[in-house]
Design brief:
single chain, Serine Threonine Protein Phosphatase 5, Tetratricopeptide repeat
Length: 183
């Protein structure tokens, strides 16, 4: 084998599950992602996804908090009621821990008025925080806002914003920091 690692999704899932059951938040987040996107052989199961994300978020894991924000944004029929306010609050918790994609999400929510009052100037502050960490979508959004008078209009802020976020919810699940299309 010459030191090669054998890909074994079943064993990987078993290890993530054991670590998650012992309370390891990053593994709880990973299981939430597996059940959201159907990776590592898991069947897509919103109830299990939300449960694992919630366990990670309750421990202050920023990835878990942001993922929970995404579920609140869309809701899950019969499992989790849709709530813009909860979506905003969970994203804000993650953003306060300097998670760049959460900072972008809070900027977006603030720019469009999802779960909070609409405030383009405050949104720009969040976008800037994310952009300073190299978050490409935040950089693009700041550039777009510079082109418009008073930073209002065009781009994400122009109609269909929540729908745009929701249509990305079911996308693939690569897991990288920039893979999150929802946020």
């Amino acid at each position: 084998m010459n030191g090669a690692i054998i890909k074994d999704e079943t064993y990987a899932l078993e290890l993530y599950t054991k670590a998650a059951q012992f309370g390891y938040a990053p593994s709880q987040y990973k299981l939430g992602s597996c059940y959201e996107y159907g990776s590592l052989g898991c069947v897509v199961d919103p109830r299990k996804s939300i449960a694992w994300y919630s366990r990670a978020a309750e421990q202050g894991d920023p990835e878990g908090e942001l993922a929970l924000s995404g579920w609140y944004l869309t809701g899950a029929e019969g499992i989790l009621p849709q709530s813009d306010q909860e979506a905003y609050l969970w994203a804000q918790k993650a953003a306060e821990k300097c998670l760049a994609k959460a900072e972008f999400a809070v900027g977006y929510y603030t720019e469009t008025g999802i779960g909070t009052r609409k405030d383009v100037q405050e949104a720009k502050k969040w976008y800037l925080r994310a952009a300073e960490q190299g978050q490409k979508r935040a950089m693009a959004r700041l550039a777009e806002l510079k082109k418009t008078p008073n930073g209002v209009g065009g781009g994400v802020g122009s109609g269909g914003g929540k729908r745009e976020l929701q249509k990305h919810r079911g996308g693939g699940g690569g897991g990288g920091k920039e893979d999150c299309s929802v946020m």
